[in-house]
Amino acid sequence: MKTLTWSELDDNARDAALARPAARADAALREGVRTIIEDVRDSGWDALCAHAERIDGTPPKRIAVALAAEDARRRLTTEQMRAMQLARANIARFHDAARPADLSIETLPGLTVRKLWRPIDSVGIYVPGGTAPLFSTLMMLAIPAKAAGVPNIAVVTPPRPDGTLDPAIAVAAELAGIDAIWSVGGAQAIAALAFGAGDIPRCAKICGPGNAWVAEAKTQVAAMAGGPAIDLPAGPSELMVIADGDASPEIVAADLLGQAEHDASAQVVLVTTDATLAKRVAALLPELAASLPRRDIALASLDNARIIIADSLAIAADIANLYAPEHLSLAISDPDALLPAIRNAGAVFAGALAAETFGDYLAGSSHVLPTDGGARAWGGVTVHTFLKAMTVQSVTPAALRKIAAPAATLARIEGLEAHARAAEARLVTQNAGATA
Ligand SMILES: NC(=O)c1ccc[n+]([C@@H]2O[C@H](COP(=O)([O-])OP(=O)(O)OC[C@H]3O[C@@H](n4cnc5c(N)ncnc54)[C@H](O)[C@@H]3O)[C@@H](O)[C@H]2O)c1
Ligand SMILES: N[C@H](CO)Cc1c[nH]c[nH+]1
Ligand SMILES: [Zn+2]
């Protein structure tokens, strides 16, 4: 793990300090994903089964949630069930409240423009499950999709070796109102949702995070002719912590390891104004990682980690805006004072008590967030992700008399005579009606 002093770095060294792990954009991975997608697009179910068996050892299967959840509920403890219900309630509360209202205004008397929100007809949801069954991600996507009123939701997740559904995923699906789940993962699952394969329906939009294979597949299908929309670039997890001298090194290290344990390609970065804290966290990270069940993943991810010493919190905020992390923790004594300077981050955790883990599971906002610098232009998943705005105009005769001539003038400036005549034709009809 590198410790760097920001003021000593030139521009190239700063770019290198904030670079994402190279493995995420590997050329062989891109080519492998392209082959899978083209095969599934061109040959459908047979190609899907071939790739699923080659990569994950089993063909896709449709699993009915009601049946799986009945058995799964018996496998979960009361405490586990209660925690999942609390998460469901908080996520639903946040997304129900975030549903946007329709808008109707008169831009001129009698010229009414409305903005009406409509759910997307069909959405594919990817639930990661390669190294851990992320039932929480199912909740973070299906609950806002339901809040938006999406009528057709297809859920995919990687298969388990025995062909059953992970109990927590089954219960999360039931709590979120999902009927069925396809056990298929990786780029092949994204291709199936993008173009349809067998009974897996083609979806207008694909949402959800995943490893580099999944993230790359979403980018590729979205760029293809006839391909779906996607939510956002949501690849391997990232956390930047900005810490001052008051921060607890143990808590900072714990938060960093929380994201490092997701994936060898995950990236965690500490930016601190305190060189002593930097040293302490650098020593703690490998020490605390050693006792984790997923230590191999966490230690591999720590190879991508950085500790950056900044001269001030204002400079730390500039570094965060340059990096645009998926998650940004403000482990500082006055987080609200720094918040106005933060422009680029998927989700911010303000103050020592606001654990990133709370956001992952039960604070209420979705944990599906932009990675790889996507936070410069994207926010995380919200109810808006599953809605689109449709505008409607209506015009009274009085408004028509005010706008037809200027509209025709504007059309003629662009040399579009047919547009001009379409505006004026209404005046003629209206005048004829008035004199008849
Ligand atoms: N950004 C976010 O909002 C967010 C949220 C949750 C999780 N995540 C990330 O999701 C990821 C989950 O990763 P995961 O691996 O556990 O599950 P995953 O479901 O994303 O990926 C597993 C699938 O990848 C495919 N795959 C793996 N290696 C392959 C290879 N060599 N060739 C072809 N296909 C291959 C397989 O089909 C496998 O089923 C992590 O990186 C985690 O950090 C991100
Ligand atoms: N931190 C992940 C997003 O990067 C989400 C997650 C799911 N489970 C635990 N964490
Ligand atoms: Zn997490």
UniProtKB/TrEMBL annotation:
Belongs to the histidinol dehydrogenase family. Binds 1 zinc ion per subunit. One of its GO terms (molecular function) is NAD binding. InterPro entries: Ald_DH/histidinol_DH (IPR016161), Histidinol_DH_CS (IPR001692), Histidinol_DH_monofunct (IPR022695), Hstdl_DH (IPR012131). One of its GO terms (biological process) is L-histidine biosynthetic process. This is Histidinol dehydrogenase. One of its GO terms (cellular component) is cytosol. Its EC number is 1.1.1.23. Gene3D superfamilies: 1.20.5.1300, Nitrogenase molybdenum iron protein domain. It comes from Flavisphingopyxis soli. The gene is hisD. Pathway: Amino-acid biosynthesis; L-histidine biosynthesis; L-histidine from 5-phospho-alpha-D-ribose 1-diphosphate: step 9/9. Keywords: Amino-acid biosynthesis, Histidine biosynthesis, Metal-binding, NAD, Oxidoreductase, Zinc. Its cofactor is Zn(2+). The active site is at 326 (proton acceptor), 327 (proton acceptor). It catalyses: L-histidinol + 2 NAD(+) + H2O = L-histidine + 2 NADH + 3 H(+). Catalyzes the sequential NAD-dependent oxidations of L-histidinol to L-histidinaldehyde and then to L-histidine. Substrate binds at residues 237, 259, 262, 327, 360, 414, 419. Zn(2+) binds at residues 259, 262, 360, 419. It holds the Pfam family Histidinol_dh. NAD(+) binds at residues 126, 188, 211.
